[in-house]
Amino acid sequence: MKVLLIESIPRKTGYTAKMAGHFKDGLATSEADVRIIDLFNYDIKPCKGCYMCWSKTPGKCIIRDDMDELMEYFLESDIIFLVTPLYHYTMNCEMLKFFERTLPFTKYGFNNSPLDLMRNSVRYPEKWKGKKIGLLTCGAFKEYENFSAITRTFELIANCMSLEICGILIRPESYLLRFKLAKPKTITNIEKAFEHAGYELGRNGFIEKETVDKAKAPIVNTSEMYINYAKIYWEYVREAYDQGIYDENIIAERVTKDPFILMKELNSYIDPVATARIKAVLYFHFIDKDLKCTISINKGKSEIIMDQEPVRYDLKVETDSKTWGEVFLREIHPRIALTEGKIRLKGDKHLFVNIDKYFPPPSD
Known about the structure:
The protein is α/β, with parallel strands linked by helices. Helices cover about 40% and strands about 20% of the residues. It has 3 domains: about 1-215, Flavodoxin domain (Rossmann fold), CATH 3.40.50.360; about 220-250; about 255-360, SCP2 sterol-binding domain (Nonspecific Lipid-transfer Protein, Chain A), CATH 3.30.1050.10. The chain contains 14 helices and 12 strands. Helix 1 (about 15-30) packs across helix 6 (about 185-205), helix 6 packs antiparallel against helix 7 (about 210-215) and helix 8 (about 225-245) packs across helix 9.
């Protein structure tokens, strides 16, 4: 099976590149014959709309550039798999330019597609038999509806070129992909899904629906939570630029250790069995940011309130955001932080001793 993987990724350390990397890892184990094309390494000029490929030189574009080579690869491949970030709700300009230049694959004369949509006639129909096409795209939005334009465009292209769709991988919430320390199990499962998708494509010629669903699984539960996380992320990006130390890994670490995010995550970890008989109010004060957080445990459930001091509490935890981040991520033992005076407790210390029991952290 010949697979042509066409990438249109301008930022080689970005989120689309990251997920494409996992996909290619799986594809490499499938024993498929894979050719990888990075469109940014090719000279592809825009279509002139002259229709010479329909009239003067049927099936051949008058523009001489690297598209000649790519069209040959396209024709000889069993599967064409596209990788593009979500740009303005659709594919980016390099990928769009590539498809505009495939006009020589069609010819004048309208007919109906397999799904009964009017289209231009397909040239070389014998070469399209059994040919498939797939898509991988990543974007910052949380809702799948934000990807509807790119998926619809892709479906129309596939339908009008008589190509069978072998899988569409969508990865929303791209900002959060770098914050694996905060969501290790969820993000690990997503990465594994992308890798398995590559394997399935190369091995079977299509991606199972179950794998597609795992690849687009939500990282955070609500849009409100995601909006807050994204806001914090961009605050750290701006701060990094202001300090002249922009580095995506440093930003990821700072966001991961942000107390707002940590407390929201902690609250989501509650164990309903371990806290079934617990009724307590935990008050956290991060003195360096003057951030207040209250988590109320009530018989297996918990509620979090930010920026508000409770009327009463059973335990008060006073610390700085850096220390709490190190404790949360297991970089320092809570007992050491207590001994060194980095964490100060007031009230029922037994609640703090059992915090890992009440809110067990996820793991890979």
